[in-house]
Design goal:
Helix content is 37%, strand content 21%. It is α/β, with parallel strands linked by helices. Strand 8 and strand 9 form a beta hairpin. Helix 10 crosses helix 11.
Length: 345
């Protein structure tokens, strides 16, 4: 199975359903498909071929999701960059991955210009978002103009399940980050093992506030779209705004790390007075959760909690602590909270 096959199914079956919302902007599955196809064809028009790397330096956006799917359809391999790294660390990743294109949002253009002389393979620079006057940066291409002129029919490149899907850099305790190459097949298998516990459904809104350069967030984008859900995207994490969205925007599902959950519980004075009528699951990852945080979260949000544990190299989920496991933990087995759950295999 290829990851864009799920997208194409929902485009065919319900093209008017919402694919993503960010602020006042909503994109349907049909519209998303057109934009993704245009971007895939734009990669080809720039001379990129199957297996070529395209780096992405941006905060969360609808276009970020488009890039992953356009890469899947064209065979071009996204390399997401952590925007919190220092510029010289971007240089290492760009050179190590041999990226031929860099797509960056405007706030990172000046920093990229500062490392440009050290980039060995990047030949194309694309600005995504609302760029400043690009006349002072003639070597940069405006994303919207570049993509809008392309054909919206599917690209002709034939993609196999064993083909590379993306290359994500992950750091251990020492040394340079290592580039992990994941395939369509590995992600599809991991999704099949994980989705039954996540309760994602067609038209259900998934609040995307964790960062799209990270393995967990990227995986859950694919999970959501595979089920015909709607990505409800925030550019970055603001606790009070997350609390508001979980209540007022009919969010059904969200991924948080325990520190983010704790921040949500203390950031808004009325957090306990809100309804969260549509919220079914809070999934957390990245660290264990303190018992007091879990108890308070269950009291306030009145939904299921599910823990994911894994690593980028595993595509990425290895174990899940289910909603039932959490209820057992609160009903006389608190030691379960020290666990990362059970293997998904």
């Amino acid at each position: 199975m290829r990851l864009h096959d799920f997208l194409d199914f929902h485009v065919r079956e319900h093209p008017e359903s919402p694919f993503a919302t960010m602020g006042d902007r909503t994109v349907t599955y049909g519209e998303a498909s057109q934009q993704i196809n245009r971007l895939a064809n734009a990669f080809s028009s720039a001379g990129l071929k199957k297996g070529d790397r395209v780096a992405v330096l941006s905060k969360n956006s609808v276009e970020y999701a488009f890039i992953y799917f356009a890469g899947a359809k064209s065979g071009v391999v996204p390399v997401p960059l952590n925007y919190r790294l220092a510029p010289h660390e971007w240089t290492y990743i760009l050179n190590d991955s041999q990226a031929k294109m860099l797509i960056a949002s405007p706030q990172y253009q000046e920093a990229v210009e500062g490392i440009r002389s050290g980039l060995e393979t990047v030949a194309h620079f694309v600005c995504v978002g609302e760029p400043d006057d690009l006349s002072s940066k003639p070597d940069w291409t405006d994303y919207d103009r570049w993509v809008s002129g392309q054909d919206d029919s599917p690209p002709e490149e034939y993609i196999l399940a064993d083909d590379d899907l993306y290359q994500m850099y992950t750091s251990g305790t020492t040394g340079h980050p290592k580039g992990v190459v994941l395939t369509h097949k590995s992600l599809a298998a991991n999704m099949a093992q994980s989705i039954p516990q996540l309760k994602i459904a067609p038209n259900r809104r998934m609040l995307m506030v964790t960062l799209l350069y990270h393995a967990a967030a990227t995986f859950l984008v694919f999970c959501c779209v595979s089920q015909g859900g709607c990505l409800w995207i925030h550019e970055e994490f603001y606790p009070a705004e997350v609390v508001r969205a979980l209540d007022e925007d009919d969010i059904g599902w969200v991924l948080l790390v325990p520190a983010m959950l704790q921040a949500c519980l203390v950031a808004s004075p009325d957090v306990a007075q809100r309804e969260y009528a549509h919220l079914g699951v809070i999934t957390y990852a990245g660290s264990p959760i303190a018992e007091e945080t879990l108890v308070r979260g269950l009291e306030v949000f009145k939904c299921d909690f599910v823990q994911l544990y894994g690593q980028t190299e595993l595509s990425p989920v290895a174990t899940i602590m289910t909603a039932e496991d959490h209820r057992r933990a609160l009903n006389g087995q608190p030691g379960l909270l020290l666990s990362a759950g059970r293997s998904i295999l």
